[in-house]
Design goal:
This protein is mainly beta and 152 residues long. It is built from one helix and eight strands.
Length: 152
């Protein structure tokens, strides 16, 4: 009886931890585990899981953050040279070290929603040493809504 109870408790614990990893307040990241693409090109080449992300609704005051994952599907190291946001309300960060063939890196995009109610679409232009697609545009969009009012 004790092994059955311990197994049941362990299963519940694993399920709870896994569910909490995918649920983040005011932040969104890819929920599926992507499969690393095969190396296909002689020189460095970049392949993103997705080029766009829709936040749907974001509460005003919470940063809208998304991490775009990319892979080097070439046979030479891939280097992100820049990830430039289209405006000052958007900030980006990216993998600075060279990404080896078959490996992944990321570009994090953060949109500050404080004082910015309504629909938004923001872009980040990623420049790399990729041989075929050295310049790629990533897009985030959504709608900033008012935070619930506190009742006194």
């Amino acid at each position: 009886m004790k092994p059955l109870i311990l197994t049941l408790l362990l299963s519940i614990l694993v399920f709870t931890i896994n569910a909490q990893k995918t649920k983040t307040k005011g932040r969104t990241s890819p929920s599926k585990t992507p499969i690393t693409p095969a190396v296909m090109y002689e020189k460095a080449e970049i392949k993103f899981d997705s080029l766009t992300h829709n936040f749907q609704e974001v509460i005003e005051g919470q940063d809208a953050i998304f991490v775009f994952v990319f892979y080097n599907i070439g046979k030479e190291p891939l280097t992100i040279l820049d990830a430039r946001p289209g405006c000052s309300c958007t900030v980006s960060d990216y993998t600075k070290e060279p990404v080896m063939p078959g490996k992944s890196g990321s570009v994090q995009v953060k949109y500050g929603t404080r004082g910015r109610m309504g629909v938004f679409t923001k872009v980040v232009t990623v420049t790399s040493n990729a041989s075929i697609s050295p310049i790629i545009t990533l897009t985030i969009n959504g709608n900033v809504i008012a935070a619930p009012q506190e009742v006194h």
